[in-house]
Fold this protein.
Amino acid sequence: MTSTLIWIAVALFAIGLYLSWTAGRLDRLHARIDAARAALDAQLLRRASVAQELATSGVLDPAASIVLYEAAHAARQAEEEQREVAESELSQALRAIFGEIQQVEAVREAPGGDEAATELAAAVRRVPMARRFHNDSVRAARALRRHRKVRWFRLAGHAPFPMAFEMDDEPPVALADRAAS
Amino acid sequence: MKIGIVCPYSWDVPGGVQFHIRDLAEHLIRLGHEVSVLAPADDETPLPPYVVSAGRAVPVPYNGSVARLNFGFLSAARVRRWLHDGTFDVIHIHEPTSPSLGLLACWAAQGPIVATFHTSNPRSRAMVAAYPILQPALEKISARIAVSEYARRTFVEHLGGDAVVIPNGVDVDFFAKAEPKPEWQGETIGFIGRIDEPRKGLPVLMKALPQIFAERPNARLLVAGRGDEDEAVATLPAELRSRVEFLGMVSDEDKARLLRSVDLYVAPNTGGESFGIILVEAMSAGAPVLASDLDAFAQVLDQGAAGDLFGNEDADSLAKAAVRLLADPERREGLRERGSAHVRRFDWSTVGADILAVYETVTDGAASVAEDERSGLRARFGLTRT
């Protein structure tokens, strides 16, 4: 009798240990998503800022300036639900304007334009990177959260179900011609 | 930035991953970053100042061959100490799935972790069994890098998740500026790689050789690499053996000079390649490249634009392609030019900037690397003060 009770206690203890370890794992995954999301935010803002700077600098022709300014402004001001669409539209605007290598060279020749072009090239390269890291962490967390043990014992607590960030982040060819490899 | 790099393989044994880590570390140090590399090494081996030894690697049978790995209590303790002393902003683990330092570091650390996957082995039986153990360690990695689109694809299939593609780096100018050696010039074909490793494809080249030599009476083959030379030429008719020259292991300088001298570089590898750094080195040196059409090679060669491809393990196709190239100096010149232009994207200046961009992306909005306290039993019960 006593030995049965002891065994039950041991089993419960082991299960508890396992569940607590899983909760820790999940917690770490949520922290990773938060960090990845912050990094993605930073990269998106950086890209929109450089784009806006270029749009208002007078280096581009007026039509391109207006298109780029609109898109960059919309991306910065977008509500959370419209963010993916607004950022995708900024990608499209950037692709339309910097589709030709001549345009990039024209920007580089302007005073201070070299830094701006380099910053923009770095930004359009880093946005897809940050997004990939973010979505990768989301995927890992979702895989664990769908597991029975997590659902039955509500190990995720009140944390919202993680969502991937879906957008068109294809960089302009002229700015990232080496990224293809 | 304070960067910690974990190398899973012995520092004293030369290999692709080790060279990659050495070049990356030196590139980052030149840019003014603080870099520390944790690598298995014998205590007697002289190490560069930025390498910290994690103790001697133990040879054990693993995955079909004998691998030198680090594991066990002592190695784990050394990893922890390195993490603790280093206070890194980011750690970069190479080959985190091999049961060695990479996995130990993944296990012991928390914070921004970047991992590079070099091999694209299909998932092994051991990996399937170890998956539940591996997964909690692997899911700590905040950013994954694959060395080619091909490696990324196999990686996504087997482990899930996603990775960014950053190719391996090469110091292009080192190869481009090497001095050609006259005795290695004049209708020479080059091959560099382990002679006794069938995967590197020397047997395929040996099978194609009689046909090539018959049609190009002045052609010679230069082979650089370790292995049994007599065994390698055993299949070759005796009168042709004098036209094959073995150079043994060559230094980096001689490798560059060899690649600068040859008229054609042949890479007949039959599989197991996820990148093909030697192709990039050959192109840097301006050698026209002829390679087997492995996925990874086709990609490095821009689907055949920067170098010619032949059917994998097809000696006949190799011989025909080699004869055609040797007979056509214009085509070789074209390959030389396109190769030299194409290879710029693999230069350390480009690759290093991309890797730094990954570091900066993961450290944005994250604390620095620390020991993972949660793996301690006491911490789990809230008994430690953290």
Notes: The first helix of chain B runs from residue 16 to 30. Residues 90 and 112 of chain B are 5 Å apart (CA to CA). Residues 382-386 of chain B have pLDDT under 50 and may be disordered. The longest strand of chain B covers residues 34-39.
